[in-house]
């Protein structure tokens, strides 16, 4: 004969939910209050520069080849010492990513031989039409470092012959 | 019948209807907030400070939504059903007194709309009209899920109405009247100067049955069979949108308020409370607080218990609540006769024997639920 136990069980369930009312809410008030992203978060792409202002991207289109969603379009042109955008022979004269196609897998990051393309921590992307979803190079490229000259730069001949720099293993 | 009396009725009716409709709007906010707190969330807080303008935003959204009528729906009944559902929900509380009578500027004011000598019967009869709206809404939608929701609803509401009515009977017997005013007055005063003479003390099991049966009566979780989302999309209001849906929604929440007001009146002393005979304006505050607490109970139960299976719902109504409430009516009647004929202190046997009988019922239900073959049936 169980008389009290069934009622106690129901009451225990009620007590559990009642107790939760005095817990701190887990809600994050999103637009005002933002949770920092994780270290390896993959958000909007950034095209990196060297410290002297030259672009890291050499227009090899390996990212476009690696892209499973076919979201990246690269067109390359020749660098000269009078108009130098990046070290080595060529630079990306057109670099476009369709943010609606992109699946943020990070394969472009992995494929890049110069670590030029990096997935950043920006995730608030919105467009009002499909044209706006195509981000051109001007939107993707990192702003110039403070003491650097803008590209194209006029450079000494014979200095920037190597397009792929010396690199270390990634840290994280 | 003088003009002033008609004016008084009009004003009181208008005020009470406005209180119910405003209460409905804020009950939705109250429910969302309370549910959110139980689930460790904050709940709506964008529209106005603490989200207090949220009901207005919801109303504007619902009014401007497109009204759809299914092509093969019965248009007249489809339009009429929400109205049939709303009207009983609004008029049912007309007999609930929400404060003692008092004189204001030399005018004697009664704080109720109607003083019917069969008030409890009025409540029962109006409550049963509400089921028509739901069944007609389900049937006229020409949608099988809406139809099933409506049918379930009618079966469930009719079944639980019996237990509900029998739990009313114990209150009627204890008060020796069906007038709501007499029932409230019978609950004024104290035993030993601190236990209020509420019927919940005299008839705790009857109150419990009332609370359970009202959950089924207003289609609230865990008895929200008619609109079981996972099984019937939205039940009887699947095909409704815009203002028609808002009316069905309004009926549901207004019924929650109404049934809480009735429960507060029948079992929790109505407007009675400390000092209410000296300061009559405390009466409405007391009944308001009691309604808020009962509503919180409904929300709390919704946040806690999962939906009961349909056949078990019917079995619980017919095989547990109905015999138990019949037994309670018998116990109450015997207790009252013994108290009148032998010794007034014998009134104590009503709560004691009721609790014993309820304990036996709990044990029997528990034994049935623990039988190995029960789960397979």
In the predicted model, the low-confidence regions of chain B spanning at least 5 consecutive residues are none
Number of strands of chain A: 5
Largest beta sheet of chain B, briefly? 2 strands, antiparallel
Low-confidence stretches of chain A: none
Which word captures the global form of chain A?
elongated
Order of H and E elements of chain A: HEHEEHEEH
Overall mean pLDDT of chain B stands at 83
Largest sheet, strands/sense/barrel of chain A: 3 strands, antiparallel
At the fold tier of CATH, the topology name of the domain at 45-140 in chain A is Alpha-Beta Plaits
Continuous helix count of chain A: 4
Strand content of chain A: 5-15%
Task: Write down the CATH class of the domain at 45-140 in chain A.
Answer: Alpha Beta
Strand content of chain B: under 5%
Overall description:
- The complex is a heterodimer of chains A (172) and B (377).
- Chain A is of the alpha+beta class.
- Chain A has a domain of 96 residues: Alpha-Beta Plaits, CATH 3.30.70.3270.
- Chain A is built from four helices and five strands.
- Chain B has a two-stranded antiparallel ribbon with strand order 1-2. A two-stranded antiparallel ribbon of chain B has the order 3-4.
- The longest helix of chain B has 36 residues.
- The mean pLDDT of chain B is 83.
Characteristics:
A: 172 residues; alpha+beta; Alpha-Beta Plaits; three-stranded antiparallel sheet; B: 377 residues; mainly alpha; two-stranded antiparallel sheet; globular
Fold topology:
The complex is a heterodimer of chains A (172) and B (377).
Chain A lengths: L3 H17 L24 E3 L14 H5 L5 E7 L11 E9 L8 H5 L5 E3 L14 E2 L1 H4 L32
Antiparallel strand pairs in A: 1-4, 2-3, 3-5
Chain B lengths: L2 H36 L15 H11 L10 H17 L10 E3 L2 E3 L9 H22 L3 H32 L4 H7 L3 E2 L3 E2 L2 H4 L1 H14 L11 H4 L9 H26 L14 H23 L5 H32 L7 H22 L7
Antiparallel strand pairs in B: 1-2, 3-4
């Amino acid at each position: 004969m169980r008389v009290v136990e069934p009622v106690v069980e129901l009451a225990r369930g009620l007590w559990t939910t009642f107790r939760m009312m005095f817990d701190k809410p887990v809600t994050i008030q999103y637009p005002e209050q933002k949770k920092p992203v994780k270290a390896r978060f993959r958000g909007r792409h950034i095209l990196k520069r060297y410290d002297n202002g030259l672009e890291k991207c050499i227009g090899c289109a390996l990212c476009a080849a690696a892209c499973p969603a076919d979201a990246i379009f690269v067109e390359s042109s020749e660098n000269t010492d009078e108009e130098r955008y990046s070290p080595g022979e060529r630079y990306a004269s057109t670099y476009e990513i369709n943010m609606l196609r992109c699946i943020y897998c990070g394969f472009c990051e992995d494929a890049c031989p110069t670590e030029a393309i990096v997935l950043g921590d920006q995730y608030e992307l919105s467009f009002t039409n499909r044209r706006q979803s195509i981000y051109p190079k001007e939107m993707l490229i990192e702003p110039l470092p403070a003491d650097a000259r803008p590209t194209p730069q006029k450079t000494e001949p014979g200095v920037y012959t190597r397009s792929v720099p010396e690199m270390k293993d990634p840290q994280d | 019948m003088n003009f002033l009396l008609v004016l008084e009725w009009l004003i009181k009716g208008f005020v009470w209807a406005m209180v119910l409709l405003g209460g409905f709007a804020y009950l939705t906010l109250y429910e969302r907030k309370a549910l959110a707190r139980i689930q460790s969330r904050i709940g709506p807080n964008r529209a106005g400070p603490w989200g207090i303008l949220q009901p207005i935003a919801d109303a504007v959204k619902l009014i401007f939504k497109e009204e759809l009528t299914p092509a093969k729906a019965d248009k007249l009944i489809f339009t009429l059903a929400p109205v049939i559902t709303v009207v009983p929900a609004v008029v049912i509380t007309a007999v609930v007194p929400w404060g003692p009578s008092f004189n204001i500027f030399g005018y004697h004011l009664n704080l109720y709309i109607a003083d019917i000598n069969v008030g409890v019967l009025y409540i029962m009869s109006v409550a049963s009209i509400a089921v028509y709206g739901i069944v007609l809404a389900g049937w006229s939608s020409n949608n099988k899920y809406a139809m099933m929701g409506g049918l379930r609803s009618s079966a469930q509401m009719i079944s639980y109405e019996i237990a509900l009515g029998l739990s009313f009977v114990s209150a009627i017997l204890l008060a020796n009247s069906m007038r709501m005013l007499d029932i409230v007055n019978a609950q004024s005063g104290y035993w030993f100067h601190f236990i209020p003479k509420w019927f919940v003390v005299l008839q705790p099991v009857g109150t419990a049955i009332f609370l359970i049966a009202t959950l089924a009566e207003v289609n609230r979780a865990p008895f929200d069979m008619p609109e079981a989302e996972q099984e019937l999309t939205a039940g009887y209001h699947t095909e409704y949108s815009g203002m028609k849906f808002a009316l069905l929604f309004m009926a549901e929440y207004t019924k929650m308020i109404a049934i809480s007001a009735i429960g507060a009146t029948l079992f929790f002393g109505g407007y009675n409370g400390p000092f209410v005979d000296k300061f009559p304006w405390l009466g409405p505050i007391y009944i308001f607080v009691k309604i808020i607490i009962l509503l919180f109970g409904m929300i709390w139960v919704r946040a806690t218990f999962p939906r009961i299976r349909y056949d078990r719902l019917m079995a619980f109504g017919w095989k547990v609540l109905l015999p138990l409430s019949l037994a309670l009516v018998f116990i109450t009647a015997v207790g009252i006769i013994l108290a009148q004929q032998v010794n007034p202190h014998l009134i104590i046997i009503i709560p004691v024997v009721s609790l014993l009988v309820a304990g036996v019922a709990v044990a029997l239900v528990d034994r049935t639920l623990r039988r190995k073959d029960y789960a397979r049936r």
